[in-house]
Design brief:
The protein is an alpha+beta fold. The chain is built from 2 helices and 7 strands.
Length: about 180
């Protein structure tokens, strides 16, 4: 449980969407942003099987890519001209995002709260179990100060002698010890 919470926190901390121009991941698609351009002067392109085609009637800074069976994937490119007409800026996006309608974004604060709550709950359970087991054991256990026994065992009886191998029976099971 703690490992799974750590993985969620790590996924929330390493957000690739912020550095690649992805503005928002929605339940039915992804909105990508062509940063640096002017609204109305941006051209968007989509790469379909190594054949790039321009997306018509769309000059905005943002473009919403709709999901196909819950997956948004493909190469997209935005292009705009700076003040110098010969200087074109291009941004390329490779999208491979799985979206769903029932998903929600987990913020860093919420992930940290879940992990902290899990640790506190587990610590509370451990403390309660520790308190109940020490009550039921009858107090603290004391060790004996003298490890030697007061009455040592008696020495072996001299009436019994060890068996002589020459006089023993040599039956089938007599050799098993």
């Amino acid at each position: 449980m703690i490992l799974m919470s750590f993985m969620f926190l790590l996924a929330a901390a390493v957000n690739p969407a912020q550095s690649q121009g992805i503005q928002e991941i929605k339940s039915d698609g992804v909105i990508i942003l062509c940063s640096g351009g002017e609204d109305g002067k941006v051209k968007w392109f989509k790469d379909n099987n190594n054949k790039e085609e321009e997306i018509k009637d769309h000059g905005n800074l943002t473009y919403e890519v709709k999901a196909d069976q819950g997956i948004v994937k493909g190469f997209y490119r935005c292009e705009y001209e700076k003040t110098d007409p010969y200087e074109k800026k291009k941004y390329v996006f490779f999208l491979r995002v799985q979206v769903c309608e029932n998903c929600y974004e987990l913020s860093r604060l919420r992930a940290a709260a879940v992990i902290l709550g899990d640790v506190l709950f587990t610590g509370g359970v451990i403390f309660i179990i520790y308190r109940f087991t020490t009550k039921n054991s009858g107090g603290t256990q004391k060790r004996a100060s003298n490890s030697r026994a007061v009455n040592p065992p008696p020495p072996p009886n001299p009436d019994y002698a060890p068996l002589d191998p020459k006089t023993r029976n040599n039956a089938v099971y007599s050799g098993i010890r």
